[in-house]
Protein 1
Amino acid sequence: MKLIIQIPCYNEEGTLPQTLQDLPRALPGVDQIEWLVVDDGSTDNTVQVAQASGVEHVIRLRQNQGLARAFLAGLEAALRVGADIIVNTDADNQYQGEDVERLIAPILNGQVDMVVGDRGVSTVAHFSFVKRWLQRMGSWVVQQAAGVSIPDATSGFRALTREAALRTLVLSEYSYTLETLIQAGARQMAVEYVPVRTNPQTRPSRLMRSLPQYLMHSGLTILRTYTLYRALRVFLGLGGIMIAAGVLVGLRFLYFFVSSQGAAGHIQSLILAAILLIVGFQVCLIGLMADLINFNRKILEEILYRVRRMELEEDPEDSQ
């Protein structure tokens, strides 16, 4: 059983040593533990610090590509070196390394595909009241979109099995946390949350530069990912609302038409009803087309999964 602990980094020379110092080198049920640092185009000495700290694998991206791309690059690299379990943690020492054992326990027991560390966002001391409230609200929204219980949607402290990592795709350029949870729910993966501890904040969040920007990016990620995996439900819902509105407006016109007032002065209602009904049916048809495209996406994802497995089975590094 080989565990790879991956750490996406961007200019983390100051916090990376402490983060690495807290990570385990041996755990019950694990034969081999290796560290992997993904340098996301850092301009400081992050790579040198990682190498001096005994990191076995350092992946360098030539320029800053964002947290989502760095996370996916780490997964692919970890799979290439034969990881059976992959743990992702932040380079700012937010999470306590001792909790890696707690994080991977459900996977070692063969219970789940993915485990996410629950920080208890409502009680994190360095979170402001607004941030705690937004974290809870965001987790609730993602929970509705994913269809699984999600107490802490934005936690980056998570563990994946090899199979879960092979099936994970990250299309967003902003963050991987929300998208991968909705994806896991759509693919009916077994996801579990375990309580984890956090350390005092070492620096401000780079992902949340401003509240409006964070809300906009997170909202778009949730909407885009949910629509990608639940296209029929989204478009049928929108189309159904338009059709229902058209029917109501049409009934209003009929009421006045059969009454003594006639149609005079209410022709606008008839036009609006016709527009709503036509557009509503068109949106429903778009939903049916999107659902058919969704089947093609599933086929392509299965092909990609099988190609990944074949490449890794042929990779000499994977057998070492």
Note: Residues 38 and 150 are 27 Å apart (CA to CA).
Protein 2
Amino acid sequence: MLWIALCTLQGPPATDIYLAGLHVVRGRVTVDAPLNVTARPGYDNQPFFLTDGRAFLYTSIREDSQADIYRYDIDKKTSVRLTTTRESEYSPTPLPNGKGFSVIRVEADSTQRLWAFDRDGSQPRLVLDSIKPVGYHAWADAHALVLFVLGSPPTLQIADAGSPGARGEVVAHDIGRSVQRIRRASVSFVLRDSVAGPWLEALDVRSRSVTKLVQPPQGADFFAWTPGGIVLTASGTKLYQWDPRRGDAWEEVADLAGDGLTNVTRLAVSPKGDRLAIVAVPAAP
């Protein structure tokens, strides 16, 4: 069952979003000490930087128990609520044209479909009305969407945002939750093979070709790419990097336990590659 549905039944985990400076020198990643920029009880998660890198969108669940979308402005160090709806919105992702953001919306009857809003959280509208239940998504280019669609097993599907009534094209079965754009028309995902184990793979949306990249570290679930083509992931309190130009081995970047973080999960890299958003559980005082 998708995590969103589990959250509805069990309540969300308490997570915070941390922000750290990110540096890449001769293929080696380093991160500055992370700063907790949400720092409150409850669920703050799923960060995604805006294209100018000056803010990121994220999902937050507060006193009303609704998942809504917020924007954190880095210079102002403030959060602004963008959506206030009876439905719940997750996974905010900037639209390719920069005029708004797309979300996974849990509708009144629990249907999960892809919606979009203007930049200020107004004008909600369906992007794909026939594909459901959608769990996660990434824009491969201005029109092509790559989707994690629930099922037994979950599938990776390609859909055209210009054809809202079209069905998705299935390109892989039994995939993980992390669907991330690498570059134009290329998206990474994890294929879960019962024999070979999980593999991070890349899908070229234009050719429909899939390329095996590397097996992820034990316990790694979410991935993020730097502009220079290095992939980052986390397991426990440790950050890892994999650079295809440096071989097949994952390299440890940092152990964030000393900074008071536990259970590091989602990561997001800013468009310029100079900041890293980190989702984690604060260590108990």
Note: The longest strand covers residues 16-25.
Protein 3
Amino acid sequence: MEQHSNETDFKRDILIYFTIIAMTGLIVGISHLQLGVRGIFLIVPIACIEASILAYYFMHLMSKKKTVHLVLLLTVIVFINLLFWPAWDVVYSPRTPSEFTKY
């Protein structure tokens, strides 16, 4: 029975490996489309999913206790806050029109 488990784990690892390669290729492909800011809104979620898959399987977080998952959740919350603070600042911070003019 141990042989079957190792074979299943190996197939899963290979599938995850090629999924990560495909997602990286997708990110590179999107970056070559020159979508500007819209490209960021496509690339960042793909990169977050890719990083989550890597952490979950290859860092063996799937077998850890709930404390590790809570720390990861806190990390994601802090990351999202840091990601969107500059946008919040641009939208809601009082600025004069001269700060946005290009020379």
Note: The chain has a mean pLDDT of 82.
Protein 4
Amino acid sequence: MKITEVVRGADLITSTFRQLLLYRALGHDVPAFYHCPLVTDEQGIRLAKRSDALALRTLRAQGRTPEDLRGDWPT
């Protein structure tokens, strides 16, 4: 498969363990996984299409910066 890195939201961390087992069972090299914090709104609810959250493009148009969205995330 030649996948070396997987970057995805922290909400998927519990799926990683099953996927690691599958990689090993199928004889594939295991990629490095990184689970990044989710982007959330002011109430702490994650931005998601299924809940009609604003797109990043819309937030940028409103003048929001990446720093605004990161909040207190470690860098």
Note: Strands lie at 5-9, 32-36.
